[in-house]
Each structure stands twice: as structure tokens, then as C-alpha cells.
Amino acid sequence: MSKMVPLPSKSIVPERDVNKPPILETNHLGIDFGGLTAVDDLTLAVGRTEIAGLIGPNGAGKTTVFNLLTNVYQPTRGDIMLDGVSTSKKSTAQVNKMGIARTFQNIRLFGHMSVLDNVKVGLHNLTKENLAVCLTHLFGYRKTEKQANEQALEYLDFFGMADMANFPAGSLPYGAQRRLEIARALATKPSIILLDEPAAGMNPSETAELMNNIRRIRDNFQIAVMLIEHDMNLVMNICEGICVLDHGKVIAKGTPDEIKSNPTVIEAYLGKKNDKKVEAKEGETNAES
């Protein structure tokens, strides 16, 4: 892993990215739902080829952050800069065209469409033909369709799935569906891809394959990867910089070694020792009564 270097914003990025502007920055980002603050004062930066982690206990606000970064939600305060450009007031589709793509906790594929067609959906940013041309198959339609098929097959081949191109997406094994969702996101040509719990439901061998694929994505496409994940073995072995949330607030930022030895992070996940003693005593009292 590359050495992590601090920025003036107190964020850290890989040394190889330090002379380039971060691909993603948030400044004092926050969102309220009614009287509830779900995310508060989130400031972070992701290097242009960084594998970054966003972790925290259940309910910490991690997926809400991803929804903010992709403009599913509009922030109550603060701003988001993608490759130096504000995403304020942009639609989710516009933000995707700017260079950010994501996957979801629950797989969202078009199950009855073929594997190939699912990836071709991700190529919509590159398609220039209008609706009339597509419906009538005139002019450059066939050329565009041929190019789309070739490009989609290249993404499938990257994940060893070219032989599954004509299968219905919904018929694939779970791990293959996860790979297909990532392939579709990559087809939008992002500068950063957000992976929301990509290892959820995977067995150890599938998780090991996922770790290898994430590194390959970063190295082959030269893009940043940011992931939410509860598998701490995966996070600590693949992420270069980690941001930890608890109740919507950043409680720690640092390298894997710094994070796993941080007492505030340990407390957020395991609770205070004194709290556990109190709980134990209350349990003994209830058992006696």
C-alpha cells in the first residue's frame, strides 16, 4: 500500500496522489430529516487512485453519505466537490455523468434482461443516438450497437464473465450478480466508484476474489474506490484511508493500523467497559428477581 500523506484539510490521501487534486471532497457536509441530524460536519477527501473505506456501527449514517454523494439526497448544509466541480443541485444522473458511480446493499439488476444488456445499460453515457434513430434502427444505430456489445463484453471479460453474456442476470449465482453490478457501474466510465457492502452475503473465497477485483479495478482503470463494509478483515487489508462514522459524525480518520488501535473506534463498536459491567449486573439482578 502507498504511504498516506496529510492534506491541509486534515484528510489523508495516498502519497502517489498527493500532487493531484482529490477526486472527491466534502466540506462540512450534513443532512437533517425533520429534527433528526443523520450526518453532521462530514469533511473528507479521497485521492484519485485511493481505495477508501467508510465504516461505522449499524445506523452510523454510512449509506446516507453515499446517497448524499450521488445526490439521491440533497444536503442540508456543506458541499461536495467531484473532480473540483460542485455537485450542488445536480440530479443523480448528472452526477453520474460527472464521474461517480455506485452499487447498492441490495443488488439492483434487471433480472429478466441478459447479462450483456445489463452492462449495456451502464454505457448510456456514451450513446449519442436519439430515440428516433434507436426505434427505427437507422443511420449509425447498428454501428453504435456493435460498439456497445464489444465494450460490454470487455467489462464482462474483466470479471471472467464473458461466457455468461446471454444468461438472464437473475439466474446468476450471488457472487456473479455482485460482479455484474460492479461491471455495470464501471461501464459508466466513473472517476470514483462507491461500493455499498460489496462483500455482504459472500463466503470467504468470494470475499478474497472481491478484494483482488477491487485492487484490479483501481490499477486497471486508474480510478478511486470507496466502500462501505462490515467485514473488517476486508477493510483492514484493502483500504488505504478509512473514515469512521458514529451517529452521523466522524469519530476517526486514518490508516488501517491507526483505526484498529483507536480507542474511540473500539468503544463505538464494542461499547464502554463500564457499560458492559452495568449491563451484566442488571442481568444478574433480573435473574434473581
Please give a handful of descriptors for the protein shown.
single chain, alpha/beta, Rossmann fold, 2 domains, six-stranded mixed beta sheet, four-stranded antiparallel beta sheet, 11 helices, globular, disordered C terminus
Strand content: 15-25%
Instruction: Name the shape in a single word.
Output: globular
Order of helices and strands: EEEEEHEEHEHHHHEHEHEEHHH
State the strand order across the main sheet. Answer: 8-9-10-5-11-12
Radius of gyration: 21 Å
Largest sheet: 6 strands, mixed
State the distance separating the first and last CA atoms. 56 Å
By CATH's scheme, which homologous superfamily of the largest domain applies?
Answer: P-loop containing nucleotide triphosphate hydrolases
The count of strands amounts to: 12
Predict the CATH topology of the largest domain: Rossmann fold
Pick out the low-confidence regions.
274-289
Whole-number tally of structural domains: 2
Query: What structural class do helix, strand and pairing data support?
Result: alpha/beta
Report what the structure shows:
With 289 residues, the chain is α/β, with parallel strands linked by helices. It is built from eleven helices and twelve strands.
Task: List the SSEs and their pairings.
Blueprint: E1 4-6, E2 12-14, E3 24-33, E4 36-46, E5 51-55, H1 62-69, E6 77-82, E7 85-86, H2 92-98, E8 100-102, H3 115-121, H4 131-136, H5 141-158, H6 174-186, E9 192-196, H7 204-221, E10 224-228, H8 232-238, E11 241-246, E12 249-254, H9 256-260, H10 263-270, H11 273-288
Parallel strand pairs: 5-10, 5-11, 8-9, 9-10
Antiparallel strand pairs: 1-2, 3-4, 3-6, 6-7, 11-12
Helix pairs in contact: 3-5, 3-6, 5-6
